[in-house]
Amino acid sequence: MKKHMVVIAALLLLTAVWSCKKEDVNGIKQGGGSAPGVVSNVTVVNEHGAATISYVLPGDEDLLYIKAVYTLPNGTQREVKASYYSNQLRVDGFADTLKHTVKLYAMNRAEEAGQPVEVEIAPLVSHIQLVYRNMTVRATAGGIRVLSQNPYKGDVVIVPMVDSLETGEWKSLDNIYTSDSIIAVSIRGLSPSPKKFAFCVRDRWLNHTDTMYATLTPKRELSIDKNDFAVYQCDNDTKMSYSTTVDLMWKGLMSNEWPCTYTDESSGIPTTITWSVGSAPVKLTRFNLLTRREGSLWYSKGSPRRFEIYGSNSPTHDGDWSKWTKILSCEVIKPSGLPLGTENNADNTAGSVGFAFDFNEDTPPYQYLRLKCLQNWMGSYFIEIENMSMWKTN
């Protein structure tokens, strides 16, 4: 009797092992079987450069997923899969508004496909075309400014090129990667001489729009001499910590060294510091704020996250805010989006060169500036500034 029990147990074990071989942990069976049925009651909602397809699943017990197969206008074949827990999938990557055929296959656990169901879609105008149609370019201080609208916040890339020698050899400038609804980006570092520019818009599927051409002459831009900066102390400005001073943000060190401008950590209200940029009002174009790295982190502690810039030509030392005009709202964006305390190479690269912001072109000239920090990366108000560089135009 005991031997019989051992034999039965062994057979059960072999059966279990055989069953595991027949179906892996992902639910895929090795053996063949009958092909699954087809989806039914298919409906389509066309979107910008895409479409969402809904359907009723076939009733097969071993159904695993639904697969959509289609070809993009550029010849690329794509597959999109949706598990049997869902009754819809989304096909994307289209750059035109023509009709396209999508084939839907029901797939079972043996990776066998049912008969295809052909679905016709007609995508709405793609994001890249919307951005291209709304795009304008113009000269600005030190370069050019690209303006457009991206109403549905699609992920797009604006590709700018320049033929500065008029030889027909186009040189790539920095691509503009964005999903912002309002696009307003300046490309700097260009000399004030006429140049031929070209612009197109692409997406991650390498669809491209037509190319826009323009001849523009960048305006002259000058770096403001930091020897012209001076502290303008207001009574309601934030106190400093560790014997540091406001002028360290233009007289201090540039290599993440101590000391730097470091305001009171215990302040329970937004930090404010005030200075002048010269002996007379100037037409500001942009600035670059370099914070201090804490250990290996740029986005931590007193590194400004949200702050405002105010201008005045007739301030008073009591800090009366009615004498000041807000000219810029700034938010530092962490490239990786990783949680506080974690940074990657992209964060390190961005932090090491500082945070750059453009002033609006219609901002009038100002002699005095105030920085009000609304939030640092620690969630409080104090700030650490290693260096502040500013530019102006004639």
Description:
The protein has about 400 residues and is mainly beta. The protein folds into 3 domains: about 40-120, Sandwich (Immunoglobulin-like); about 125-220, Immunoglobulins (Immunoglobulin-like, Sandwich), CATH 2.60.40; about 225-394, Galactose-binding domain-like (Jelly Rolls, Sandwich), CATH 2.60.120.260. About 10% of the residues lie in helices and about 40% in strands. The protein has helices at about 1-20, 125-135, 250, 345-355, and strands at about 40-45, 50-55, 65-70, 75-85, 90, 100-110, 115-120, 135-140, 145-150, 155-165, 170, 175-180, 180-185, 195-200, 210-215, 220-225, 230, 260, 270-275, 285-290, 305-310, 325-330, 355-360, 370-375, 385-394. Strands 10, 11, 12, 14 and 15 form a 5-stranded antiparallel β-sheet that branches. The chain is elongated, with a radius of gyration of 30 Å. Pfam families: DUF4959, DUF5000, DUF5126. This is DUF4959 domain-containing protein. InterPro entries: DUF4959, DUF5000, DUF5126. Keywords: Signal.
